[in-house]
Amino acid sequence: MVGIMKNPKEIFRIAESRISEANILLAAGYYDGAFYLAGYSIEMALKAKICLHLDIPNLFEDSKLLEKPNSKLTTLSFCYCYQA
Prior knowledge:
mainly alpha
């Protein structure tokens, strides 16, 4: 069992665990489940990289980041939500 997502290192660990699970599903012929978990793993790895790049120690617990109108996370969220 993997720990709670508290920092980028733990998020990367979860991503690695999910990709391992995806490989098991792939080997067993469960392609849809393998594809889903691989995508989730990529999502987690990207979130961890964003945390590292923007110097955000905890993406999932620091709600104050979302309250600041000019915060890095608010800007990132806006860019993500309004992609064409």
